[in-house]
Structures are given as structure tokens and as C-alpha cells.
Amino acid sequence: MKIAFVVLGSRGDVQPFVAIAKELIRRGIPAVILAQRLFQPWIEREGIQFVDLPGHLTKDMSESLVAQALTTGNMKLLLNDFYNKERLGKTVHQVLTYLKNDKDVTLVVCGPAVTFLAPMMHYLSDSMPGISMDLTIWSLNSIVQSASSLVVHAPVLKHVRNLDFSEFSNINMVKAVLPPQRILPHYFACSHNIMPRPSDWPADILVGGNVLYENRFGNNLLSPETEAFLDDGDAPVYIGFGSMAADLCTDFFAFINEVVEHSAQATRFIVKGITGKVGKFWPGTVVTSEPHNVLFSQCSVIVHHGGAGKTAEAARGGKPVVICTFCTDQPLWAEYIAKTGAGINAGPFCSLTGKQLSALINKAQEPKTTAAAKELGYRMREERGLENACDWLTSLAGGDFALREELTWLEWFWTGFLSFFGFQFLSFTKKKSE
Asked: Strand runs (DSSP E) across 292-400, as ranges?
């Protein structure tokens, strides 16, 4: 028995799968992660087998397009780069090659960016048990979301279908009728305390809780400098936007200075993502990067971008948050956190001033928000996200895998609608090219 994870995206997308693989290995179950090479040192340092996939996220994405997408909020500009059909075709081939050579693998887990390829890989790999695992609950009744996903995925699927996979299977992929993605077992590694599970979903679609990755070096210690800073005064405000390129749409140094300037003199800050110059101007500010699971519970307010992992970790810390979004699923997380009352949805970061953020930080510290954040943190800490995911995967890899026999009427409706939409879209593009 062995479980293979196929993961594309940013570090935040990869982290939960590293956590799961580590726990599986601790339980004595071999695991391998197939990802892009920039993550190889980190994954191998965690003691996990690594297999290289084509491409390099940061190099494949045009910096000018990233800047334009962030400033305009139009993430469609990046879709052609991220969902490059040639690169994804090579990715499918690489995954199938690995599965052909490693006979120990009994389950393939496709991460968020490649779930739509899971049915194809399932049949091309001689029906190797495969599942989809998402980090966000996408609503089944979202016409815009479903239609836009198909527009993005259809050209990729058309390209991949026309590739030569004869070394893996006798199936004619051009003519093959693949079942909908939802026929495969599906797992959502996110919190029902933040994002409620849709009431119309059947019992076999699982929402098991957030999978949180601990410090990459295997310890939970803050640096001595940060420890001393925390011990020297009131709980600070944390400001950090992960891998989001905040400096592409603003002068981030000037932005932070404006936040500090419009805050009460006693307010202290921990900032991630800029040089140490801020501390020289504002003695109550330090610039550092620390393990969130240790740091966040010792802060007064958490300001972040609304990524899935950061949202979960901040919520688990039990402190109020201010979410300044950039792209993808971040506005969704910001909306749900605001609904819990545990934080504030500040809207797009690129339209925010430092003065406005300072006012929102003050608002987030109102008693009602602080109490809601404390209650949400308690519920989050009671979740067994990592354990639930590993239990389920172990069961499937051990022989309990089965295709879903029944889809809800809503799933069948959307499958039919999207199939028709996809056919019309592909016909249109074919006529246009001719």
C-alpha cells in the first residue's frame, strides 16, 4: 500500500499534502508527492519521496501579468499561464509514467488544481483508484463558477485527449466518454466551522476539517528576538500576506508606515514581507517570519490575504482578523470569516490605504468580534482535520475504494448542462480556428 499525491500551485496549496504525507509515513504507510521542482528541497527535508513534475510556478507566470492581475483584480489574465495545456499534458504523462513504474501505489490523490484531470488519469492508469481533494468548498449551484471552470478546463482536456498514451492504455481518448469528475470519491480538507457543508450534498462527499501544516523544520519555537518582543509589551498586530506580491500594486514599505502612523502610539506590529527598515523608524515594529501556529495566538489582530491555510491558522489562533484579498478563493474565505463575526472583510488589498487598514484593525478589536474569534478558535482546535483525512485515505488505499454509484439530481443537472456548454464552446473555438 502506498499513496501518491499530485499537487500543483503555490506553497499554500502544497502544505496540506505535505502534512498528510508526513502523518501517513508516521503511521507506517509510504507516501510520495508529485510536484514542481521548486518544492523538492522542502518536501525531501520532511522525509517524503519526491517526483518532479514539469514547470516552475514562479518562472512560468509572467511578472507583468501578475502585477496587472493584482492591480485590476482580473485573475483571468493568469489562466493561460497557469493552465498551460502543453505543460499539463506533460504532467499527465509524467504521472502515468510514475504509476506504471511504481507498482506499490494503491491510491492517487489529485490536489485542487488538477482535480479535473482525475477521471482521465483514473482510466489511463488501468483504473488505478484515484480521488479528488479540495481545500475549498465550491458551491454546486454556482453557474458562474462552474461555467468559468469549464471554459478554462475544456481546452486543456481537448489537448490532453489528443496526446499519445498508447504506452499506458488501449483506450482511444479522443472517442472515449469519460464519467463526470464527481463520480470519483471526493474529499474537502476544509473547516465546516468556517464554510458550512452544503445541506444538499450526499453523505459520501466528506468535509473533514482543515489540514494544518506545522513548522517546516519540525519545531514549534519562535526566534529569541520575537520571544523577547512579545514579552516586552502588549500583544502586537500581525501583518503578513504570504506569497502574495503586495509590492507589485503598492509601495509596501510606505503602506506599512502609513498603517503605523495612523495607529495608537502604543500599538505594536509584527510584519512579514519587507526589509528591517521599518523597525528603525518605529521601535514598536519588528519584521520576521515565524511559525503561525505558535505566533498567531499571541497576537491581538491578524491581518492576512485570505489564503485557505492562513485563514484556518488565524481562525485556530482565536484572534480577530482583517482579510485583505488578492485573488482566487480569497474573497470567498473573507466572506465566510465575516459571516462568523470573527473578522472583517477589507476587500481587495490593492484598493486599500494604510490609513483605512489602521481603522479596520481598530474595529476588529471590538468586544463582539473578539468574542466571536475566541469561540471560533475553540471550535477549530477541536477539529481532527489531519486525522480524518489520513483515516479516509488509508481506508481507500487499503481496498475500500469504489466509484460513487449515485449522483444527486443537482449533480446530474450540472453535469448535463456543463457537457452541453463544453460541446458548444469547443465547437465555437473549432469554427473560429477554421
From this structure: 301-304, 321-325, 343-348
Number of domains present in the structure of the chain: 2
**Whether the Cβ atoms of residue 120 and residue 143 lie closer than 8 Å to each other:** no
Domain extent, residue 206, equals 3-210+384-433
Q: Are residues 394 and 355 both part of a single domain?
A: no
CATH number at residue 309: 3.40.50.2000
User: What's the pLDDT band for 353 if we cut at 50, 70, 90?
Assistant: very high
Name every residue whose Cβ is closer than 8 Å to that of residue 267 and which is 6 or more positions away in sequence: 236, 237, 260, 284, 361
Q: Write out the three cell numbers for 14.
A: 502544497
Sign of CA dihedral 274, 276, 278, 283: positive
% of residues, the chain, pLDDT over 70? 78
Rounded CA separation 346/363 (Å): 11
Q: Do 123 and 46 fall within a single domain?
A: yes
Same-domain pairing of 185 and 262? no
Measured distance CA(71)–CA(65) in Å, rounded: 10
Tell me: do 391 and 242 sit in the same domain: no
Q: Which residue has the cell 494544518?
A: 212
Does one domain contain both 61 and 121? yes
pTM value is 0.81
DSSP string, 81-126: HHT-HHHHHHHHHHHHHHHHH-TT--EEEE-GGGGGGHHHHHHHTT
Output DSSP code: residue 265: T
